[in-house]
């Protein structure tokens, strides 16, 4: 496969091990990475030239060493003279002189071949973690280096909370988060409040809610008691009025009886007067 034109280095890098599986894994890894804090190491600065020979568990074969950078071939390409170099190394070399650094034969940039199979073989070589010096004991295939660095407990990362400038090992993030001034988390009870360590100690929306509920219950009980008292007063007023009405009815009945008696007496008196007057007239005649 001829390399007809210059390929963007970063694009070429991502295709270097040309494995879709690897790309899928790294995209997953970047999500974990963002959750656990940004890596504090600059990846791009380490990507020039080949891989550091010291990184490999077993000393790499001499054939896999780039003559230009003395590192293990990174994205190897073969010139027409069959010499193999890192792609970036030979492209930079050719900017200055268009001859092979090994055999001095002329090198045509358009006749450089990418060695995908060799690249894949190098990708399978076991390496030590770059954080070995910080204590990481892991070894893994070179192709998994990026993925490992996204989860490596010894990776130097930035604290993920906005405003915090702390850089620390990923494994120390949890310990740091317990004291970080910039730590923020929404209330786990779901009240919507965003809490810092300081406000979290005082925040107890559940207790507050219970206190409010108890205060409301007290208010409701007081209202109910007042209503009962009012009802009792109204009941006694109604009973009093009933008694008054009963008395009025009784007195009305008594007055009726008296009136009837008085009428009867008047009638009797009239009858007596009539009888008397009729008796007087007969004795007079
Ligand atoms: Zn090189
Ligand atoms: Zn050569
Ligand atoms: Zn590691
Ligand atoms: Zn912090
Ligand atoms: Zn809350």
TrEMBL record:
Residues 259-274 have a biased composition (Acidic residues). Keywords: Metal-binding, Zinc, Zinc-finger. Residues 276-285 have a biased composition (Polar residues). Pfam families: zf-C3HC4_2. InterPro entries: Znf_RING, Znf_RING/FYVE/PHD, Znf_RING_CS, Znf_SIAH, Znf_TRAF. SUPFAM superfamilies: RING/U-box (SSF57850), TRAF domain-like (SSF49599). The keyword Metal-binding applies. The keyword Protein biosynthesis does not apply. Residues 124-182 form the SIAH-type domain. Residues 148-191 form the TRAF-type domain. One of its GO terms (molecular function) is zinc ion binding. Residues 259-285 are annotated as: Disordered. This is RING finger protein 151. It comes from Merluccius polli (Benguela hake).
């Amino acid at each position: 496969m001829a390399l007809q034109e210059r390929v963007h280095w970063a694009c070429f890098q991502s295709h270097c091990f040309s494995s879709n599986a690897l790309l899928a894994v790294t995209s997953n890894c970047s999500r974990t990475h963002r959750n656990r804090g940004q890596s504090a190491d600059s990846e791009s600065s380490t990507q020039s030239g080949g891989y550091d020979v010291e990184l490999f568990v077993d000393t790499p074969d001499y054939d896999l060493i780039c003559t230009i950078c003395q590192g293990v071939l990174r994205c190897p390409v073969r010139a027409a003279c069959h010499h193999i170099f890192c792609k970036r190394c030979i492209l930079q070399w050719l900017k200055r002189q268009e001859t092979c650094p090994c055999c001095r034969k002329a090198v045509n940039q358009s006749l450089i071949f990418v060695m995908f199979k060799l690249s894949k073989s190098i990708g399978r070589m076991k390496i030590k973690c770059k954080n070995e010096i910080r204590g990481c004991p892991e070894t893994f295939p070179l192709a998994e280096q990026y993925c490992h660095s996204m989860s490596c407990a010894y990776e130097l990362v930035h604290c993920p909370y906005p405003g915090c400038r702390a850089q620390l090992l990923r494994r120390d993030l949890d310990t740091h988060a317990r004291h970080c001034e910039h730590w923020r988390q929404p209330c786990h009870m779901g009240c919507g409040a965003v809490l810092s360590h300081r406000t979290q100690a005082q925040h107890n929306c559940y207790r507050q809610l219970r206190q409010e509920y108890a205060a409301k219950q007290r208010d409701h009980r007081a209202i109910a008691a007042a209503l009962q008292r009012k009802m009792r007063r109204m009941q006694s007023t109604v009973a009093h009025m009933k008694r008054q009405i009963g008395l009025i009815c009784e007195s009305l009945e008594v007055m009726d009886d008296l009136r009837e008696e008085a009428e009867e007496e008047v009638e009797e008196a009239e009858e007596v007067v009539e009888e008397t007057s009729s008796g007087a007239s007969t004795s007079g005649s």
